[in-house]
Amino acid sequence: MQYKHIIFDLDGTLIDTEEAILKTWQNTLEEYGYQYTLDEIKVVLGVTTQIGLERLNAKVDDNYAHRWQENYEKYAIEAQFFDGTKEMLKALKEKGCILGIVSSRSYKEYEKYFSMFHLDDYFTYKVLEEDTVKHKPEAEPLLKYMEIAKAMKDECIYIGDMPSDIQCANNAFMASGLVTWNKSGVICDEAKYIFNNPTDLLQL
C-alpha cells in the first residue's frame, strides 16, 4: 500500500446517512418557520451545524442542536454501511493499514448514532468536532489527526464524499480521494483520486 494511514469521513463516505440528515434539517428548520427543499438543504452536508446554518442563512436559537438531535432519532435507524465498505475496511486492516476517522460529527453523535456499526473495531484514531477550533474545509482536523497519530502527511490519504473533504486534505498538503459509490453526483476536480467502488482503495 502506498499510504500507511487511510483516513475517512463518515457520512456519505462509509455510512449512508444523507437522507436521514436532510430530512432532519428540513423538519427542524420547519419548527423555526423555514421551508427548504431537500435539494436546497444539501449545502449542509459535510460541515458543522454552525456552518450549515450560515450557508442556509437560517437564524435559530440555542435549542436548535437539541431539537435537531431529537428529530434525527426518527431517521437514524435508516443509516447503513454503503455496499462493500465494511469489507473494504477489514481488508485494509489485514493489509496493515492504520485507519482513522475525521468527521464533523460530535462525540455525542458518534457514540449515539454510530456505535451500532462497531467502527472502533476498524479505526485506531478519530478526530471529531470538539477536537478542533476550525473545521473542514480548513486543514486543522487533519493536522490534528497527524498530531495524535504521529503521522507524516506523505503517509496519509483522506477520503470523503464532498468538496469540503477534498479541500481539507489539500489544505493539509495530504493526498485526497473522492468517493462516487454513494451516487451523489458530486464532482471535485481537485481530488487526487476518484474511487468508484470500495474495492478501488485496495489498489493504492
TrEMBL record:
<dbReference type="InterPro" id="IPR041492">
    <property type="entry name" value="HAD_2"/>
</dbReference>
<dbReference type="InterPro" id="IPR006439">
    <property type="entry name" value="HAD-SF_hydro_IA"/>
</dbReference>
<dbReference type="InterPro" id="IPR023198">
    <property type="entry name" value="PGP-like_dom2"/>
</dbReference>
<dbReference type="InterPro" id="IPR050155">
    <property type="entry name" value="HAD-like_hydrolase_sf"/>
</dbReference>
<dbReference type="GO" id="GO:0005829">
    <property type="term" value="C:cytosol"/>
</dbReference>
<dbReference type="GO" id="GO:0008967">
    <property type="term" value="F:phosphoglycolate phosphatase activity"/>
</dbReference>
<protein>
    <submittedName>
        <fullName>HAD superfamily hydrolase (TIGR01549 family)</fullName>
    </submittedName>
</protein>
<dbReference type="GO" id="GO:0006281">
    <property type="term" value="P:DNA repair"/>
</dbReference>
<dbReference type="Pfam" id="PF13419">
    <property type="entry name" value="HAD_2"/>
</dbReference>
<dbReference type="InterPro" id="IPR036412">
    <property type="entry name" value="HAD-like_sf"/>
</dbReference>
<keyword id="KW-0378">Hydrolase</keyword>
<dbReference type="InterPro" id="IPR023214">
    <property type="entry name" value="HAD_sf"/>
</dbReference>
